[in-house]
């Protein structure tokens, strides 16, 4: 992966952070980084809150070390600060050195102490969280009125974004108040707290982007603490935030003709023309030069559609003689039998195939039937039927599926996961719940088809399609239906091109986070 992609888009996992720390130990030094991390936390708190009574909860590791440094900097700024230590830092560690420099008051690590504070800083566990925190820790966090996390809320898994908590984390992190988890176990006697602010360092982590971490963290600020880029590179991050610059969508060129912009072809069936037409419309609206529907004897049903669509009634084998028709969508609007009659022909002819909807159902329980496709776009139900339940670590499951199928897997959801067979993964949070409307997945298939037809490599095409679809969803107004996305897709593609061009050149700036609240702050 290019250095600029690592610098600008990587989301290192806690395991990779530990490699980064080992590298940093030999260069800049953990003590220096801890000091800057604590300073950055204090700076963000001073910026976002008025002076108030602060309690810093410190764990035994380096996350706690950051907490002691933050406490010292806040105290120096005149804020009333006390520290509650869950356990003392290991003797002779950098955290122990940081703890010894804090000369303010210590109070017991209890819910009562938390209740007395106006603001509680959670520096209990960060990247080193290795299991569910005890209920003592959870009770103290839950008693806090206002919470700021150092690096990560102490019960969020930085790799998966999952809530790590004794009892039923699903019920705790879900929407409905329930006293029983799915296993029937009684839930602990505390509510899972929400954070106002999370200050992380170097780069955001997957747990800041994936649910439920994303929801719990509040505003995420990523501070540049002067970690050498070479240390981040040594950690070999392979999960990236999906954004323009990670990939490059072709702009319009004065010499363009429709074939250079690309042809997208779709297989169509007899009973669900709507899905095929939505996918075709998505392909056209996102900039395909030509979109053709191969409808055979069902052509009449499609000829009533948009006038700019070309409807073919010739047999598929005949259409495949046209080598300009490289990219095919197979699945939206198709029954299993219709997939069976078309997909093998497309693959035999060496076409670039995106398989969605009906094609995924046809291969349920037997993903080998999709061998040779370039991209699959399952939602969680389709993914489960194809590859089995993904479990808590969806990134890992999507990556495994991509490797197994030798195809790009787009696991769609509120945060979509785009996994390549070579292990690269992009997480897309550039979207909107407005997209949760029937047919929007068909539109997405069309958009990705356009990116493939424009000549983009398949992982980049899938990433770009998901981002552009998300951007359209963010701009399609209140409660849009799938058709509403189409009028926003051209502008969304233009926005992707504009943001890509604005990406900072290597060496020109710091570690940048593009989306939403993931802003990078450099030390003053
Ligand atoms: N990368 C960077 O850029 C920089 C990172 N920095 C900071 O370092 C942080 C990572 O520090 P870290 O590796 O020391 O791990 P940390 O989160 O403090 O926890 C480890 C301790 O907690 C314990 N423990 C874990 N879970 C537990 C549980 N449920 N219940 C009870 N105990 C539990 C665990 O015990 P063990 O699992 O070994 O039994 C161990 O003792 C990172 O988040 C960031 O804030 C900055 O300082 C510098 C730049
Ligand atoms: N809450 C949400 N936030 C963001 N995007 C969402 C949300 N819910 C659904 N989406 C997106 O909407 C699309 C829905 O696709 P899909 O489930 O295949 O629907 P359909 O089969 O009806 O077309 C996916 O791209 C998905 O990522
Ligand atoms: K923490």
TrEMBL record:
Binding site for (6S)-NADPHX: 62-66, 151, 275, 333, 379, 442
Domain YjeF C-terminal residue range list: 241-496
Cofactor(s) the record lists: Mg(2+); K(+)
Domain of life: Bacteria
Protein residues bound to K(+): 63, 122, 154
Binding partners and assembly: Homotetramer.
PANTHER family: ATP-DEPENDENT (S)-NAD(P)H-HYDRATE DEHYDRATASE (PTHR12592:SF0), ATP-DEPENDENT (S)-NAD(P)H-HYDRATE DEHYDRATASE FAMILY MEMBER (PTHR12592)
Name of this chain's protein: Bifunctional NAD(P)H-hydrate repair enzyme
Organism: Swaminathania salitolerans
């Amino acid at each position: 992966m290019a250095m600029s992609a690592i610098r600008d888009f990587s989301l290192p996992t806690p395991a990779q952070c530990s490699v980064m720390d080992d590298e940093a130990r030999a260069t800049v030094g953990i003590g220096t980084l801890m000091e800057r991390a604590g300073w950055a936390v204090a700076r963000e708190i001073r910026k976002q809150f008025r002076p108030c009574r602060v309690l810093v909860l410190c764990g035994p590791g380096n996350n706690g070390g950051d907490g002691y440094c933050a406490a010292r900097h806040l105290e120096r700024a005149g804020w009333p600060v006390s520290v509650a230590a869950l356990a003392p830092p290991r003797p002779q560690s950098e955290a122990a050195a940081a703890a010894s420099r804090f000369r303010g008051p210590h109070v017991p690590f209890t819910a009562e102490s938390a209740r007395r504070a106006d603001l509680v800083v959670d520096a209990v566990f960060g990247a080193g969280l290795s299991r569910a925190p005890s209920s003592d820790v959870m009770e103290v966090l839950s008693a806090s009125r206002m919470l700021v996390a150092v690096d990560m809320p102490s019960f969020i898994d930085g790799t998966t974004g999952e809530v790590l908590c004794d009892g039923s984390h699903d019920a705790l992190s879900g929407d409905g108040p329930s006293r029983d988890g799915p296993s029937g176990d009684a839930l602990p006697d505390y509510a899972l707290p929400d954070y106002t602010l999370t200050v992380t360092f170097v780069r955001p982590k997957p747990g800041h982007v994936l649910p439920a971490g994303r929801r719990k963290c509040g505003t995420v600020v990523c501070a540049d603490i002067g970690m050498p880029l070479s240390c981040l590179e040594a950690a070999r991050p392979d999960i990236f935030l999906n954004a323009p610059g990670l990939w490059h969508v072709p702009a319009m060129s004065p010499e363009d003709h429709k074939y250079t912009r690309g042809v997208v072809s779709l297989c169509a069936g007899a009973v669900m023309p709507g899905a095929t037409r939505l996918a075709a419309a998505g392909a056209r609206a996102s900039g395909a030069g030509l979109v053709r529907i191969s409808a055979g004897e069902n052509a009449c049903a499609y000829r009533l559609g948009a006038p700019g669509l070309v409807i073919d009634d010739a047999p598929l084998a005949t259409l495949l003689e046209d080598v300009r028709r490289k990219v095919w969508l197979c699945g939206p609007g198709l029954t299993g039998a219709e997939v069976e009659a078309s997909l093998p022909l497309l693959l035999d002819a060496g076409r670039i195939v995106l398989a969605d909807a009906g094609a995924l159902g046809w291969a349920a329980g037997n993903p080998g039937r999709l061998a040779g496709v370039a991209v699959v776009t399952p939602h969680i139900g389709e993914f489960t039927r194809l590859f089995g339940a993904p479990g808590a670590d969806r990134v890992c499951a999507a990556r495994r599926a991509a490797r197994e199928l030798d195809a790009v897997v787009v696991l769609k959801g509120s945060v979509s996961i785009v996994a390549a067979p070579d292990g690269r993964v992009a997480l897309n949070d550039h979207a909107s719940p407005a997209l949760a409307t029937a047919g929007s997945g068909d539109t997405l298939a069309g958009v990705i088809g356009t990116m493939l037809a424009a000549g983009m490599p398949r992982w980049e095409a899938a990433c770009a399609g998901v981002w552009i679809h998300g951007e359209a969803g963010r701009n399609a107004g209140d409660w849009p239906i799938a058709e509403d996305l189409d009028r926003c897709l051209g502008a969304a593609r233009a926005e992707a091109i504009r943001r890509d061009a604005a990406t900072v050149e290597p060496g020109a700036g710091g570690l940048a986070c593009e989306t939403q609240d993931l802003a990078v702050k450099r030390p003053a």
